[in-house]
Amino acid sequence: MSASVAVYRNIYTEDRFKQAYGTGDKADEGERLRDKLFRRCRCSQPAFLHLLKERVPIFNWLPKYRFKKWIFGDMVAGLTVGILHIPQGMAFALLTSVAPIYGLYTSFFPVVLYMLFGTGRHVSTGTFAVVSLMTGSVVEQLVPVGLNASSAEAAEAEAQRIGVASAVAFLSGIMMICMFGLQLGFLSTYLSEPIVKAFTSAAAFHVTVSQLQSMLGLRLTRYTGPFSLFKTLASVLENLPHTNLAEFLISLVCLSVLVPMKEVNTRFRQRLRTPVPVEILTVIIATGVAYGSSLDTRYDVQIVGHIPAGFPQPRLPALQTLPEVAGDTVAITFVGYAVSVSLAMIYADKHSYSIRPNQELLAHGISNTVSSLFTCFPSSATLATTNILESAGGFTQLSGLFTSLVVLVVLLLIGPLFYFLPKAVLACINVTSLRQMFLQFQDLPDLWRISKMDFVSVCLSHTCACQPFVPLSDPI
């Protein structure tokens, strides 16, 4: 019995064949390809909304915000951190070798931008001592100022300095955005917590040594380059006989207040609803005493000077310096990102939510790039304020709104009142803000017992953090 096979196919006329398969003309093939690509690239409304929520997370978490449950905690935490940002912003500006007002700017713009783009609910951004000191080394190298410079020369140098610092922030932001485009957020997986701790604690030594001259009232040149730590220390010891006794006494009084009160805030953090804002109280009292006693004219005490009120005018950074700062900016970028993403991951694990490292790159990249257009220097997440934000009861990124409002009030109204603030007070705030970094040395014995390899890595990190990134200027 033979099997029969039947083949059924459509019968095409010439017109129907051309409609289904085209004419074979290259122009028609190109048109079909364009139509196909257009259909694939065309974004539907749900896809656009999904992309918007992914790239601007505030549109994702704000509609789900539990107002009655979270608003009080976010408000208290945000106001507390905002009050702390004022003295720390001005103090860390001195580490960057720029005027204190630029520290206030850097305490405002990055906070607002991270609130929009960041995924860490308990991360506080702004000025950070390590990043500020690294940036200050670049600024000092490119725009040195002599101790006997005239007022006109000092003003010109000040404008150039913030231009260089803003250029570092601009380039750092561009680098982070490029890393986001390459999806390099996975690098955070390889960040060792002991290495990050070692680097920041080693940098604490450099910050402390750099502030000795301000605490003692010495007018010394800031050293950059290899072994600047030892050169600065030797210079301070050599000039000890020239110590300004008034500024030395101011430093002793401030340290005797700041150190015990910080210990109280730490010991009783569970009982205190918010930590005692000892830094801002010290700033206010010191400013009043300096004004009433005319310390600047009677005892030659260095004061902050004029702090302009108002919002900064947008302007381009010193883009012509980008080739000169590129190498150091790579180091600053990786240090800032390492600290920021490490803090975000620590508090995300503690409160059982997740962050997106790639989105963190975009958030800090946009933050630094946009902020640089408003005369800000590089910013990152900060150890002290992040810890306070979490301990004060913050729940979401909305706490950044209240933080920025506090800084905004100071920028618009209160800033000029700090004219008579002694710089020695800011130096003491810088040193005491590093308390947590110094305490990290207590982990070394446990680390030796757990992993000798990690212990060796930490020691090497301490050594490397004290040296410049070859072959560039000293960043720490």
TrEMBL record:
InterPro entries from the UniProt entry: SLC26A/SulP_dom, SLC26A/SulP_fam
Gene Ontology cellular-component terms listed: membrane
Domain SLC26A/SulP transporter, residue spans: 72-459
Keyword Transmembrane carried by entry: yes
Keywords: Membrane, Transmembrane, Transmembrane helix
Parts of the chain that traverse the membrane: 70-86, 92-116, 167-187, 240-260, 272-291, 329-349, 361-381, 401-421
Biological processes per GO annotation: transmembrane transport
Listed name of the protein: SLC26A/SulP transporter domain-containing protein
Source organism per UniProt: Synaphobranchus kaupii
